[in-house]
What we know:
GO terms for molecular function: ATPase binding; proton-transporting ATPase activity, rotational mechanism. By secondary structure, the chain is mainly alpha-helical.
Amino acid sequence: MKMSILLGVAQMNLGILLSYFNATYFRNSLNVWFQFIPQMIFLNGLFGYLSLLIIVKWCTGSQADLYHVMIYMFLSPTDELGENQLFPGQKTVQLVLLLLSLVSVPWMLLPKPFLLKMQHENRHQGQSYTPLHSTEESLQLEVNHHSHDHEEFEFSEVFVHQLIHTIEFVLGAVSNTASYLRLWALSLAHSELSSVFYEKVLILSWGFNNIIILIVGIIIFIFATVGVLLVMETLSAFLHALRLHWVEFQNKFYEGDGYKFHPFSLASLDDEDE
């Protein structure tokens, strides 16, 4: 179970890191400062810290209850940890990480819509007045240029989109981390099926002291092992891994907005040739 959490947090961090490379490639500094950085702080301030506690508990052999530590990190952050303390200064570290995680939420939500609005206003500042042109062709070009450059900035739409994105990431950080527990469930189911086939088929047939029953039991055990444990369990693990890559991993960086649909038109081909 703990290993699945470590793998999940590591993969989600990789996904957020890829969002940084996307932002730098498209030269979008807003996504670096108001998406990548607060997301890294929020995820690692909570679940990165949980991963650290898991590793420390493994190394020290402590009997600390990590469920208690994480729950009371929110409910009673100033209380003493007692037997659940894993290292000196743990309470101070938890307070700092909790504050950083709380600050990262409005950091993701508020600045970006206002900065986008400011950029839009600065981009169109000074374009209220258009020069006079003498020809109809120049006037038509100016009208087209004016219509493209003066698209309205829907602040409410941008803010709602950012609000949805922030809520999705905050809640998704919890649900996605829990979703990686399916790896633990797969290993648990595999071990239980293995023990059932071994005890209820092979060992049971061995106890009859009959060669025919033993041969039948071995055949059933072989087919059950190959059909269920090797084929079905492998397919199940592949589908779960595919789901984790597609949802929990790719939603950190992959947008897939695609391209605007333009219907096929012979007239547009003629315009391109000209």
